[in-house]
């Protein structure tokens, strides 16, 4: 009996639980600080552009380091890698909690991100190793609790804490959990995955950092600086060129840092395409809802967070259920049903107005999250199931990288669509108001003019949000069409024969 078979017969649940906790607080931190940004701006006297780097920078470091995670997972033991990642995350959390100036807080967030970037790919890889193909659905469904629930809970939790305490409390709460996880990992963790003697290709690492970092920075900055800024299109062009060079280099290497040849497996390639499209559609609600409920409707940050809480709870409940359904019915049935729900609810979001009730918003958002819960993990797991075990680190690294990049690009594009549509509508409404005013009509007072201007801007922004949700509906419809081509990967036991540097394996799919 091989080591892998032994592990799959008796999965290391204790180890997986420790990895779960670490990954949960790492992902939670990605969205936890968003509601606190205004308070941080006030305390450190920095502008919105500077403070936004606390979120953008976190995502940027993740995007740079995740592609290298495949190398780290294959080169270093699970225990050493997780302890290092958790120690970095804990150090960053502590520094953020006591940060005397904004620069220290920003550096602390970068240190946090350098640890969290490794946790998700490591956890996914351990789970792929620890469970046989026919049981991965339930296991990865539970993993969905971490991946989906943590960022959904973040705004609600931080909204409540900021309303009652200092923003530093966000880090004070996470710190003891991080310390406990670090201590447990030192004494309880063991090594599950296979290690290989590999050398890090420095040129590939540099190209990866410039490529993914340039794209993430460029698209993330577009909403603030505008697409005509040389900082935006310059970094996107440099990033794209570096990424193309990086990919070509990996395809020529016998032992690449990130294996792009895994896209020759059709179900993995299809699952990656669907995941990219879904990530863009999912980010639309995460971006547009806070703008709508807080800016247009004047709902408090806490209440806007609570609006999203039922959706987070539903996703948390559904993740393990979806995993078991995946094991029984496969990914296509779940994905098609989930995307139908997503398309319908996204369309109804494109029809919201200033009188839409709070209950209706909660119901729509919760149903949309229910639909999403049926899609993300089944599609991703089905794609990963087709990969040979030796390619799992590359598969998990590729999935996480694509989600980071598509999330940043999707966010920037949707914000651009909303802003452009809002500006165009504002001009049309202003022109209409001017044309309806009789030349002999007395000029409105300053207060009336200000109220008219605000009304026009609110109506224009609502139109922009509606239109962007409609675009999101079309994007989700594309994912629905792609989901029709999903085929279930046969549960099989790989036969890998390492002989004279070659590896052969048996894979298969069924309709």
From TrEMBL:
User: Keywords on this record?
Assistant: Cell membrane, Membrane, Transmembrane, Transmembrane helix, Transport
- Identify one Gene Ontology CC term for this UniProt entry: plasma membrane
All residue ranges annotated as the Major facilitator superfamily (MFS) profile domain in the record: 15-491
- Provide the membrane topology annotation: Multi-pass membrane protein
| Keyword presence, Nucleotidyltransferase | no
Q: Which residues cross the membrane?
A: 12-33, 53-73, 85-107, 113-131, 143-162, 168-187, 199-219, 231-248, 268-293, 305-326, 333-350, 356-380, 462-486
Pfam families assigned to the protein according to its UniProt record, in alphabetical order: MFS_1
Q: Principal localization?
A: membrane
Q: Where in the cell is it found?
A: Cell membrane
Keyword match Membrane: yes
Q: Name one GO molecular function term.
A: transmembrane transporter activity
Identify its protein family.
Belongs to the major facilitator superfamily. EmrB family.
Q: What is this protein called?
A: EmrB/QacA subfamily drug resistance transporter
What is the source species? Scopulibacillus darangshiensis
